[in-house]
Amino acid sequence: MTHARTVCEAFQATALIDPDAVALRTGGDAVTVSWREYAAHVRAVAAGLAALGVRRGDTVGILLTNRPEFAWIDSGAMHLGAVPFSIYNTSSPEQIEYLFGNAGNQVVFTETALLPSVLASGVKLEHVICVDGAPEGVTMTLADLEASGAADFDFEAAWHAVEPDDVLTLIYTSGTTGPPKGVQLTHANMLKVGLSAMEVVDVHPGDRITSFLPSAHIADRASTQYFAALRGVQVTYVADPRTIAAALPDASPTIWFAVPRVWEKIKAGVEAKVAAEESPVKKRLALFALDMARRSAEAKVAGRPLSGVDAIRYRVADKLVLSKVREALGMDQMRWAWSAAAAIAPETLMFFMGLGIDVCELWGMSELGGAGTLNPPGRVKVGTVGKVLPGAEVMLAEDGELLFRGPGVMTGYRHDPEKTAEAIDEDGWLHTGDVATIDDEGYVTIVDRKKEIIINAAGKNMSPVNIENTIKTACALLATIAVIGDNKPYNVAIMTLDPDAVAAYASKNGLPADPAVLATDAGLIAAVQAGVDAGNAKLSRVEQVKKFTILPAYWMPGTEEMTPTLKLRRRPISEKYAAEIAALYA
Predict the structure, then answer these.
(1) By the 8 A CB rule, do 203 and 231 touch?
(2) Cβ of 310: how many Cβ atoms within 10 Å?
(3) pTM, 2 dp
(4) Inter-residue contact 169 to 218 (CB < 8 Å)
(5) Sign (positive/negative) of CA torsion 465, 577, 172, 222?
(6) What pLDDT does 566 receive?
(7) Sign of the alpha-carbon torsion through 549, 553, 554, 556
(8) By C-alpha distance, which of 383, 365, 341 is closest to 432?
(9) What is the rounded CA–CA span in Å between residue 228 and residue 222?
(10) HSE of 240 in the Cβ direction (CA atoms, 13 Å)?
(11) Where in the chain is the domain with CATH 3.40.50.12780?
(12) Would you state the pLDDT for residue 175?
């Protein structure tokens, strides 16, 4: 709905368009919730929260896996004018204590599996509401809450009283440096960002998307919760993000959002299947099709059509193989998809482009409502993050830092005027912390985080992310690479293995899938070295990784090495693995 003043108003209009359409579901239709039922749940949650004394402007915490209840808890609180916010499932009790202290919430919604962390945090909460039962320590169930609203609760008056400048949600930054900051986003912020994005990508009522990334992250909240409210997008909830590839054929998304690691895993899965094909005829056909896909992507990137013979070959490859690959992946209905939250390797984008799937890289931050620049479907410039959203503007500071100004920029960090003043200058420019370039067509390329640029001993500036992506593309066995080289004579890397990729290697070689064993296996080290050599061949001499070590552990999201959104925490890594790094320079 384009003329809504608040997300509540948009939701109410959308819910009336096709009340019997499925709004929320889980795999295999184990749970389906129509728009009529969704709207009824929202009303019941709002009435229940009002009965608990929650008022406009009060915060409401949510700690849940990706499940349909999230949608109506979040929307129910929003319709009261309250401020629902979600935190990462990986949050430790100490982190929960800090986040709830900053937010000041008296209410939290959680589930049985995540309840122990809430209780262990020691935060004094008036109401702990559980969506899936009544274990000890819970004050009521979600069903109890929905049944507890006053009969005369004036729901219409409640949501009509919500103003565009009211805070809609808090998004806590993942805290790569220092404690997380609470980004305050208003109804106006998220409406304007959503509608601006929809001027670049088409989103229709009845479009389908999945919710599998953390709901605490702006990407999931904007692309599922708010796209649903604005356009009636159907959301399939996938509780375990590791199962997303298997869940896609069932969800059959028409539009989709994933982080680079997910795109890399899907690409590696296709390539592994081709490599393992035992029929020589089928294998030859698959390799022919992937070669034609590569040529098609190269032609698209160069802005030229495929030559006559290649165009015919591509059509044959698409009919016999590529269309079946899209169908097997659950991507045969996908009109466009997004990649963001970290840089993606150009080879990965081109792989999907060749398959006939438009993956458009975008750039954004919580502080500007999620999306700041995006590549238009059909006019993607690989290696860039696209053009600035309609209604917003970007420019470069003298040191190359990207500055952003637009209607999505936050009102500030919660209870932190100093950090807010550091982030947003008096002219309204958000200082993003990213170093970038802008070409003559307005396409933005992110070089790296300003704080993460490596300046070697000879004074040469380098982007660790670019080096890491180049090598990772050449080495499917690796999950993460952390390149080190600041103030050093050359670059080194510490690496962790990809659990899925090395499981196949381990079973083939009769080894346990134990990273401590695999990290010292000569064959595996040689395979990684070959990948490093192939990656180095694409880098300038000064950027190349001269030495590496493979750690005997897997890094998981939400740990001291990695944020829940898979960004490396570089300073803690440098401190924790100081001995390993020193050995590489010895």
Answers:
(1) yes
(2) 15
(3) 0.91
(4) no
(5) positive
(6) 81
(7) negative
(8) 365
(9) 9
(10) 6
(11) 261-332+334-450
(12) 61
Structural domain 7-254, CATH architecture: 3-Layer(aba) Sandwich (3.40)
Supply 75's token pair: 């929307």
CATH 3.30.300.30 residue ranges for the chain: 453-585
> What does the alpha-carbon distance between residue 504 and residue 577 come to, in Å, rounded to a whole number?
28
Q: Three-state DSSP class for 450? A: helix
All residue ranges of the chain with pLDDT < 70 are: 1-2, 175-177
Task: Round the CA-based radius of gyration of the chain to a whole number and report it.
Answer: 24
Q: Say which CATH topology domain 453-585 has.
A: GMP Synthetase; Chain A, domain 3 (3.30.300)
User: Residue 557's pLDDT is what?
Assistant: 85
Rounded distance between C-alpha atoms, residue 84 and residue 72, angstroms: 11
**CATH, domain 261-332+334-450, list 3.40.1280.10, 3.90.1150.10, 2.130.10.10, 3.40.50.12780:** 3.40.50.12780
Q: How far apart are CA 586 and CA 562, in angstroms?
A: 26
The pLDDT, as a whole number, for residue 2 is 59
pLDDT at 179: 83
- Sole residue written with tokens 């948009």: 10
Instruction: Give the model confidence (pLDDT) of 110-130 as tens digits.
Output: 999 999 999 999 999 999 999
Predicted local confidence at residue 556, as pLDDT:
87
Give the 3-state DSSP-derived string for 84-141, with helices as H, strands as E and coil as C. Answer: EEECCCCCCHHHHHHHHHHHCCCEEEECCCCHHHHHHCCCCCCEEEECCCCCCCCCEE
Please report, as a single letter, which amino acid is at residue 32: T
Listed in sequence order, the residues at least 6 apart from 508 whose beta carbon sits closer than 8 Å to its beta carbon are none
Bridge partners (DSSP) of residue 396 are 402
How many Å apart are CA 295 and CA 557, to the nearest integer?
35
